[in-house]
Design goal:
The chain is of the alpha/beta class. The chain has 9 helices and 8 strands.
Length: 259
Amino acid sequence: MKYPVKEEGEFKYIETGGGEEHLLLLHGLFGALSNFQGILDHFGDKYNVVVPILPIFEMPLRKVSVKGLVEHVARFVEHKGYGKVHVLGNSLGGHIALLYALGYPEKVKSIILTGSSGLFESAMGSTFPKRGDYDFIKRKTEATFYDPRVASKELVDEVFDIVNDRNKGIRIIATAKSAVRHNLGDKLHQIKAPVLLIWGKQDNVTPPFVAEKFHELLPNSRLVFIDKCGHAPMMEHPEAFNRHLEDFLQEVVKQDVPA
């Protein structure tokens, strides 16, 4: 990867330093830095693109929750001394972005959600996979995408390693349960920042009706669908994703410049 992972105290993150506008990327439960490679490559020189590594596997077990992760993001933004940020979240990362915007509205310039949890999600079905069942993990990881070939062996191996680590597995379940408890349906109307929803038409984790409900409940939102696309549009269709994102960010930044 072009950008090294930095460590400062409790924080691990990537930062491109490419511009004055801060674009904060929040990954999902099984997310990895590679999920955002297309965004980093496209925007890294024009924006200060920042990817904090969420401490899902490092936090004390009693603190493992969506709320704990939101507080981590808040401390990170404070630590870095950023003003307002554009915050982009995929899956659980979108959920955290929304909770951050609700808790710290003065810090959020815009929100970009893709395959976000917070209203409805169907990640692993009703049971957590048996440890050691590589084929099951492979099928589940492939099902995240419209085109199963996007699920590289490296990606499947990464998910498999997480599931097979008992400590990590417990934390995944705890975080997922916490996310379900933090349904945001009755709070989204409070978010006034502009929101871009980029959704895969064939997302079977957070299906299209979820995007439409987000669009209905978020007062300042726009929704775009990408066809032949699953739960991670920024990985499956990076060019289309980046085009929609760039148009949105330019518009937000332009509106924010005083006349």
